[in-house]
Design a protein that fits this description.
eight-stranded mixed sheet; alpha+beta; globular; about 250 residues
Length: about 250
């Protein structure tokens, strides 16, 4: 069993899904698929011809939303078996895919691989390429071990002690950042973009309706809020490699 593709999912309140769709298609240089789901709650952000999608949006009926991962495999039953053995809790089973909860409580999906292999390009100096899992301190070590064993990806130390990174094999489009929170609170997730120039990307996003919330330590990242109310980060990583400029 191996992870063959990854999707970053932005979950936004259904009442504001149209605003999220307009914003995220603009910043990623994509267009919308036809809606899917009983309530037309799912859409895929489709890049230009010749590359594969790796970002999707979901309208959620309650709460502020957030983000989650879809891990795609040829052998979905095998992925589910491995996840359960590592401590994941099944939440819902569908035709060919399933929703699970990690040991720390983070929702994610196991889905079939449909042959995706070509990641989208950098757009206007940035690339949405990372899902940050925001984990309470008491669950951090066990949660890190869960995701590392589930994916089999390379586990790297981050730029700060509270960060670790799971770097996927070359060609897969979405990394996993494991962030240890300062205080006990429910596990959550948000999206990160790698930016060649954070101020320039921030200005472009603000023109599209986003607002700055805070600057991170040493200005290595900026926390933003999109027009649908969802938090995300602009990070000072290389949009081509995903790594810090001096680390690759």
């Amino acid at each position: 069993m191996s992870i063959r593709w990854t999707y970053a999912f932005a979950d936004r309140p259904a009442a504001h899904l149209a605003a999220a769709q307009a914003f995220w298609t603009a910043v990623t240089g994509t267009f919308l698929s036809a809606p899917r789901g009983a309530d037309d709650e799912f859409v895929t952000l489709l890049p230009a011809s010749g590359v594969d999608a790796c970002v999707k949006l979901q309208g959620v009926p309650s709460g502020p939303g957030g983000a989650h991962l879809d891990l795609c495999a040829e052998d979905v039953p095998g992925l589910l078996k491995r996840a359960r053995a590592l401590g994941a809790e099944p939440v819902a089973e569908h035709d060919g895919w399933a929703v699970l909860r990690s040991p720390a409580g983070q929702l994610w999906c196991a889905a079939p691989w449909h042959g995706e292999s070509v990641r989208p390009p950098v757009v206007a100096g940035s690339r949405l390429d990372q899902v940050s899992l925001d984990i309470p301190p008491s669950a951090y070590e066990a949660e890190t071990a869960f995701w590392a064993e589930l994916t089999g990806w390379e586990l790297l130390t981050g730029s700060l002690p509270e960060f670790r990174v799971l770097r996927p094999p070359a060609g897969l489009p979405v990394r996993i950042l494991l962030q240890r929170l300062d205080a006990e609170q429910p596990a959550a997730a948000h999206l990160d973009l790698a930016c060649a120039d954070i101020p320039a990307t921030r200005a472009r996003h603000e023109e599209l309706g986003a607002v700055r919330v805070a600057d991170g330590r040493h200005h290595h990242w900026t926390v933003m809020r999109d027009p649908a109310g969802g938090l995300y980060c602009l990070t000072a990583r290389d949009p081509e490699t995903g790594g810090l400029p001096d680390r690759g």
